[in-house]
Design goal:
about 220 residues; alpha/beta; Rossmann fold; seven-stranded mixed β-sheet; 7 strands; about 40% helix; globular
Amino acid sequence: MKEQGASAEAREILVRGLAALGLEPTEAQVGSFMTYLGELKRWSRAYSLTSLKSDMEIVVGHFLDSCLYLKGLDTSVTSVADVGSGAGLPGLPLKIMRPELNITLIEPTRKKAAFLRYVAGKLAFGGLRVMECTLQEAEGEVLVDVAVTRALWSVEEFVRRADSIVKPGGQMVMSKGPKLQEELKAAKGKLPEYRIIEAALPFGDSALRQIVVISKP
C-alpha cells in the first residue's frame, strides 16, 4: 500500500541519506518514515508543526538531521526521553531506526501532543509514550538512560534542566551548530564530562552538525 502523502523522490532521498550515515533501513522502517511524512504534512496545514514544506526539506532537515543523534547513542542504551519533542523530533526517527528503544516524547503544547499521540497510534509502536507536560512536570515520572533535545536550550541549561530525568551514569545528547564553542566557553567549569561528534548532514548545508554527548556522573 502506498504511504499517504509520500513521493518516490522522498523515499529515494531518505534511503540514500540513511546510507550516507551508514544506516540500512528495512522496508518497514522506510514505510514508517513515509507514513510519518504524510501525517506531518497533513497536520501541519492546521497546526503549523513545521516550517519546512517540501518532501525533500522534511526528509533532510527533520528525518536525516534527527538520525544524526544515533551517533551519540551507545548500543547499551534502552530508554530515551525526547524533551520538547514538538513534531516528534528527534524522538520518532530514533524510534523508527532503533525500535527496541523505549522512548518518551515530552511535549507541553496540546496540539503538538495530540499529533504525537495520533502518529504513535498510526505507526503502532510499542515502547513509545507521549507525555503532555513540561520537563519540570515530568520529574518523578520519567527516568531514562539518555535525554535528547533538538536545539531547545544551551548546553548548560539543558544539562541543568534534564539532570533529574537521567539515570546516574546516563547521558544528555543534543545537536548544536556554529555557536557551540561560545556556549562551552560560557559554561566552562560548570559541565560534567562531554564529547563532541562532528557529523555532516546528507544533502544539507555545508555546515557540520556537532552532536554533544554529556555524561552524567
